[in-house]
Amino acid sequence: MRVSGRRGRCRLFQRLRVQSCRCPSQRVRQPVSDSQPEPEPDSDAQPTPTIPPPTGAPGAWVTAVSHLGRPEIQTQTLAVNGSTVVVMRADTYTTRLVLHAGYEDPGGVGWIAGPAISALERPTVLAAFNGGFRLNLGLGGFLVLGHGLGVIQPGLASVVTYGDGTSDIGAWGRDVPAKGKRIISVRQNLGLLVDAGLPATDIDQYGPWGATLGGGFAVARSGLGIDRYGNLMWAGSSFATPRTIAMALIQSGAVRAMQLDINPMWVDAFTFPTTSTQQLVLPTQYRQVGTYVDPYSRDFFTVTLRGPS
Asked: Which among 109, 114, 143, 149 would be 20 to 30 A from 31, CA to CA?
């Protein structure tokens, strides 16, 4: 538990199957709207669980990684449109998203997080998952602390991480970036897959969502969404259309989401229950244990403990 050092005793409570400990003086993340930056709650606001179970979701969340008794990473398996989709959710309050640069894409040097999970990062890593399309396709930019590749384009789906440790997903110039927040990283990829809790209007069209191996529409596919509390959710399947990934994320509570990479070699996610253990999130994924621990050619994300606040 991460609690304030101020006087007084924290009361341990459990609500909606999520355990959380906070002092009354500590700020608590409240639900945010679909298009506005998160408001700053006052000190008297009532605590709100950061990982509530989504209303009406057909799956059951299972703790994959915990820290000090808190469920930091949870997963659920959904049956959507005849496909099996695994959704992995990270607690926004205690975790941070880190964008890594692959040794080929974007390549080069000077990135704060390189092509492998470093020895320094490893003790805090909770999960890792694939990035987006190759940057030379011109379908979105890649930016870390002002150092980038490609062009950050208005309107494209973007996952943005800020200096305060929070992340958001939205259309660049409309939903993100938040005013007054320092930008740590940006990764863009195509248009929004989910917007205002609904699938994209072109969700069933082949062209907007990338070329697939063999020309089929249902292939290995992944996406990244955010719920109204700010929790990030990766969704992946070995056989899914864009609508299938979108619906899995919506059923899991996503209000906005973007597609990440597609095709078998590039869709994967892992959890790290301990510092010496790496486990597959998608049982049928092509890449196995050791991915991202060893140098990797493409960009990817890790989810790490944010540390005391």
From this structure: 143
Task: List the beta strands (DSSP E) in 61-196.
Answer: 62-67, 70-80, 83-90, 95-100, 125-130, 142-144, 147-149, 157-162, 167-171, 183-188, 192-195
- What residues are paired with 183 via a beta bridge? 162
- Round to whole Å and give the CA distance between 83 and 284: 12
For 33-67, the pLDDT digits (tens) are 343 333 333 333 333 444 444 444 456 999 999 99
Residue 125: φ, ψ to 5°: -75, 130
What pTM was computed for the model? 0.82
DSSP letter at 54 equals: P
CA distance 187 to 139: 11
* Nearest CA among 227, 252, 259 for reference residue 87: 252
